[in-house]
Amino acid sequence: MDQAKLDSFVGKVFGDLTAALSAPLLLVGDRLGLYRAMAAGGPMTSKELAKKTKTSERYLREWLANQAAAGYVEYDKATGRYTLPAEHAMVLADESSPAFMVGGFDVVHSSFDGVDRTAKAFRSGKGVPWGAHHPALFRGTARFFGPGYRANLAGPWLSSLDGVVDKLSRGAKVADVGCGHGISTAVMAKAFPKSHFTGFDAHPPSVRDAKKHAAAAGAKKNTKFEVAKSSDFPGKGWDLVCFFDCFHDMGDPLGAAKHVRKSLAPDGTWLLVEPFAGDRLEDNLNPVGRIFYAASTQICVPASLSEKGKAALGAQAGEARIGEIMKKAGFTRFRRATSTPFNLILEARP
Questions:
Q1: Are the CB atoms for 251 and 229 separated by under 8 Å?
Q2: What are 329-343's pLDDT values in tens digits?
Q3: CATH value of 103-349 in 3.40.50.720, 3.40.50.150, 3.30.70.270, 2.160.10.10
Q4: What is the pTM of this model?
């Protein structure tokens, strides 16, 4: 037994434990508007924050102590006041910020709710449909990916595709497949008002929420939403088909790819945004890989195994494996258009 190695690992797991146990308190801060109040109010005591948010001072006193111990807020012992730094507010309080990350903790909420369900799936080998999860997953997925879509989609991602921005500017026909709450659909629709966007998703509650979101975002005029699967969504002659962070979840990704191929216009484009991954396991043994493998184990692979095909690509499928599917589906051109530390932006053409 290497005592130093043991001590180091205990410290690592203890750090994970402190984060996990504090995660619900981050969600409490989000739900009650505590971070937003601190972002707008400057340094304040627990009493001042309680008055501002109409919450219990005693609970807030304990919550603030946890947040200060975590380094999420700063504590001034001379004044007894707590401050949420502007940089932290971008991550915790400003949902329009590209750095906003609270949505990921909604996904954590769903994951803990599903522990028994996941363990049962491990024993049986059966899948778990997307719709079987706690509603926090659907809300969290939209909130987690939304900042990235708002910051990148209408700009660098679409601009990286050959000729697509020109088509969208003139007026194009676009399908957003697996649209979820419609964040991506609304972002594109607002940026390109001459084009028309149809969001498709197999989860009816998400489609209902997508309609509400598009209306609230001012994108109702050139959007519509329908319940449909990736392998049978209606329509032909699409100028652009988009799959945002959903291709790897599908039971039959090859079937979906063949359907997209048939549905595209002759000069159409298929945009796939997938989690960033190398093509080898050893390339993904890092913090980004850790979070995506965690989501893949609990959400993505179970979703695929619940559907016909049961391909179970996983969230870390990688560019090479996806490229093989594109070739089998009849696409003659496939490339990485661009990437971020968290996403691969892939382009397929007939």
A1: no
A2: 999 999 999 999 999
A3: 3.40.50.150
A4: 0.93
